[in-house]
Amino acid sequence: FMICVSMGYPTAEEEIEILKREQSIEKTRERIDPVVNAEELIQMQREVKEVFVHDWIFGYIVELAKATRENEWTE
Asked: How many C-beta neighbours within 10 Å does residue 52 have?
């Protein structure tokens, strides 16, 4: 799905806060223990491909994406 959103740019103070937040996220990542290994993740990805999805669901997804393209802001 592609979405076009214009949010403008943050102020200098907001950018500093974003940078500080990213720095603290990196420190937090170092303390996080993995819940699955690479092999388990790959197996999960394979299993997802086995899930049956009815054509109605695919149609709904397409209609939902179409609705995001046809709005008052894109005209």
From this structure: 5
Which pTM value belongs to this model?
Answer: 0.41
Average pLDDT, integer, range 25-45 = 83
Half-sphere exposure of 60 (CA within 13 A, CB side): 5
Closest CA to 40 of 28, 48, 31: 48
Phi, then psi, of 51 in degrees rounded to 5: -75, 130
Domain boundaries, the chain: 12-69
Average pLDDT, the chain: 82
- Kindly tell me if the per-residue pLDDT of 40 is higher than 80: yes
Rounded to an integer, what distance in angstroms lies between the CA atom of residue 21 and that of residue 67?
Answer: 34
